[in-house]
């Protein structure tokens, strides 16, 4: 084998996958057919769940240092601002806010982290075909000068976008549709308009809509929809975007100095399956949808951290390969289905015009502005912290038949504050559960300890045990966050999803999970690439 894994595509998903695998010691090769990183930025928003994932990669501070924290989403009709949603008020996360950062900036930081882990993107190389057998995958590669070569790896991961070669190779249909409307995009500077560069604006008036996103110092992205006509797919211009602003936004905003102008159609598609044998798809190769909500890149990075640790475990000889690898599609495809559907609904709500629709929108946003519970629901949905894995072989190992609530099996772990008994200082739980291993939170009373002797000892090297008692959790705040009324335990996966839980000394579920997911097969012989 040349390497353990070949990753095709060096966008955010491919880079996040490569980083995740390298954290576990997996050898990786990552290629991209572009000779240079993309200069334009499709994605702009990094939501809470992705910031949590970046904490696990050890680089969240780099993003927080340069990203602009979003404060609000402001909605209006012509001269009137109908209301605003203060972003972050309702998100239960170690990072209860989104940040605005260009995709180019995101990719640059991910490449830097990957280089620190010993891997550099190989550019100007595309995958043309793959064949797989029981031992591995053979890929035919072609460079920009036409030279062909062969790659031999255990697995191939397709992060190669909407026209994915890997998706085609595994026979997955890209099910869905293309919206007929033509959308316009421009990265511009704006004079006037009374704009707050930490707010996102969605404005409609006179049968149309404009959306404004701040993403670099003094630069805004404008989204709008072209009126239907025989030349609707012709290139756009600054003059056309200005005409849209004059019609649909409040007066006084002048566009200038465009750096990117584009027209596009929105696709809403989902791969029929994510895996065939040793080949997988993730990110835009698996799902594409409306940019409404800014979740595309975030969903791809969540794919990466979900698949990455599972594939690493299989390569290390841990657990049941079928249980681990089948759980990727079982967990992530329903999550992507929900994102596709929800973003489509948001796009239709924001961009479909007409007097009746405008009136309904005005009324709806006026009501939303007065209902904190509805605002919280919208924020949590966008943050991706509420994604729950109801089904799949890993969830079934925990609490079969139970529909989870936050803090239960299949939901994202919760941050909390604990007390360092040695120093008396308060600390965040999140950094302690963001490593390469499972984290076992053990909650004990003063009178005794939880007996973990039933857990296979060989698996403990992959588990960090964190014990909490009256000294470290004096108010039982962490215990209550995880819905435990007395002694018990909670096991958290490397992607910060709750894997299993139990009360008292009942560790039968824990032992079963460890046996099928974490334990090393005694007969496993590592076949490290030569």
CATH C-level class of the largest domain is Alpha Beta
What's the total helix number?
13
Task: Kindly state the percentage of residues in helix.
Answer: 25-40%
The CATH superfamily of the largest domain bears the name: FAD/NAD(P)-binding domain
Cα(first) to Cα(last) distance is: 6 Å
The structural class is alpha+beta
**Largest sheet, strands/sense/barrel:** 8 strands, mixed
Count of DSSP strands: 27
Kindly report the average pLDDT value: 88
Principal-axes shape call = globular
For the record, the count of structural domains works out to 3
CATH topology of the largest domain: FAD/NAD(P)-binding domain
Low-confidence stretches: none
**CATH architecture identity of the largest domain:** 3-Layer(bba) Sandwich
The portion of residues forming beta strands comes to: 25-35%
Keywords: FAD, Flavoprotein, Monooxygenase, Oxidoreductase
GO molecular function, one term: FAD binding
Domain FAD-binding: 3-343
Cofactor: FAD
How does this structure look, described?
- One of its GO terms (molecular function) is oxidoreductase activity, acting on paired donors, with incorporation or reduction of molecular oxygen, NAD(P)H as one donor, and incorporation of one atom of oxygen.
- Its cofactor is FAD.
- InterPro entries: FAD-bd (IPR002938), FAD/NAD-bd_sf (IPR036188), RIFMO-like (IPR050641).
- Keywords: FAD, Flavoprotein, Monooxygenase, Oxidoreductase.
- The chain is of the alpha+beta class.
- The chain has 3 domains: 3-44 and 102-175 and 270-351, FAD/NAD(P)-binding domain (3-Layer(bba) Sandwich); 183-265, Alpha-Beta Plaits (2-Layer Sandwich), CATH 3.30.70.2450; 393-518, 3-Layer(aba) Sandwich (Glutaredoxin).
- Helices cover 29% and strands 28% of the residues.
- It has helices at residues 12-23, 48-56, 60-66, 103-116, 165-169, 238-248, 296-315, 321-351, 355-368, 372-383, 393-396, 477-481, 508-518; strands at 3-8, 28-32, 45-46, 68-69, 72-77, 80-86, 99-100, 122-123, 125-132, 137-143, 148-158, 174-178, 183-191, 199-205, 208-216, 219-225, 254-264, 267-271, 275-276, 279-281, 287-288, 417-419, 426-428, 438-443, 463-468, 488-492, 498-503.
- The model has no long low-confidence stretch (mean pLDDT 88).
């Amino acid at each position: 084998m040349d390497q353990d894994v070949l990753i095709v595509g060096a966008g955010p998903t491919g880079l996040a996958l490569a980083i995740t695998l390298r954290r576990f010691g997996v050898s990786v090769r990552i290629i991209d057919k572009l000779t240079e990183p993309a200069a334009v930025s499709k994605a702009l928003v990094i939501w809470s769940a992705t910031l949590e994932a970046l904490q696990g990669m050890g680089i969240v501070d780099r993003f927080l240092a340069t990203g602009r924290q979003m404060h609000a989403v402001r909605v209006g009709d012509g001269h009137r601002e109908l209301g605003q949603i203060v972003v972050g008020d309702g998100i239960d996360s170690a990072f209860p806010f989104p940040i605005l950062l260009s995709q180019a900036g995101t990719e640059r930081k991910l490449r830097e982290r990957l280089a620190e882990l010993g891997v550099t993107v190989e550019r100007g190389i595309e995958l043309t075909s793959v064949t797989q057998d029981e031992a591995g995958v053979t890929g035919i590669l072609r460079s920009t000068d036409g030279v062909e070569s062969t790659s031999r790896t255990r697995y191939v991961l397709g992060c190669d976008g909407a026209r994915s070669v890997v998706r085609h190779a595994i026979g997955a249909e890209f099910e869905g549709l293309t919206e007929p409307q033509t959308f316009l995009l421009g990265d511009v500077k704006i004079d006037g308009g009374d704009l707050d560069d930490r707010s996102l604006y969605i404005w409609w008036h006179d049968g149309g809509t404009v959306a404004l996103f701040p993403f670099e110092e003094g630069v805004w992205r404008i989204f709008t929809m072209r009126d239907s006509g025989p030349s609707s797919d012709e290139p756009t211009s600054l003059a056309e975007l200005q005409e849209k602003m004059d019609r649909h936004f409040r007066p006084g905003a002048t566009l200038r100095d465009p750096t990117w102008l584009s027209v596009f159609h929105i696709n809403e598609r989902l791969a029929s399956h994510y895996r065939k044998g040793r080949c997988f798809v993730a990110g835009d190769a698996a799902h594409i949808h409306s940019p409404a909500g800014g979740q595309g890149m975030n969903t791809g990075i969540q794919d990466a951290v979900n698949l990455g640790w599972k594939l690493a475990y299989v390569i290390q000889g841990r657990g049941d390969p079928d249980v681990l690898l089948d759980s990727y599609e079982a967990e992530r495809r329903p999550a992507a289905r929900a994102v596709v559907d929800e973003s489509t609904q948001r796009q239709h709500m924001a961009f479909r015009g007409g007097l009746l629709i405008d009136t309904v929108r005005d009324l709806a946003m006026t009501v939303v502005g007065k209902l904190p519970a509805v605002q919280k629901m919208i924020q949590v949905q966008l943050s991706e912290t509420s994604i729950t894995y109801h089904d799949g072989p890993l969830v079934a190992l925990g609490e079969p038949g139970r529909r989870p609530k936050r803090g239960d099996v299949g939901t994202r772990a919760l941050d909390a504050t604990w007390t360092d008994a040695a120093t008396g200082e308060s600390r965040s739980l999140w950094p302690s559960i963001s490593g390469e291993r499972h984290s076992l939170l053990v909650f004990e009373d003063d009178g005794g300890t939880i007996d973990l002797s039933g857990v296979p000892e060989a698996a403990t090297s992959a588990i960090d045990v964190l014990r909490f008692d009256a000294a470290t959790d004096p108010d039982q705040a962490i215990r209550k966050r995880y819905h435990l009324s007395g002694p018990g335990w909670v096991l958290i996966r490397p992607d910060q999803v709750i894997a299993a839980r139990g009360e008292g000394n009942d560790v039968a579920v824990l032992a079963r999970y460890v046996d099928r997911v974490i334990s090393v097969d005694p007969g496993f012989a590592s076949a490290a690439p030569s």
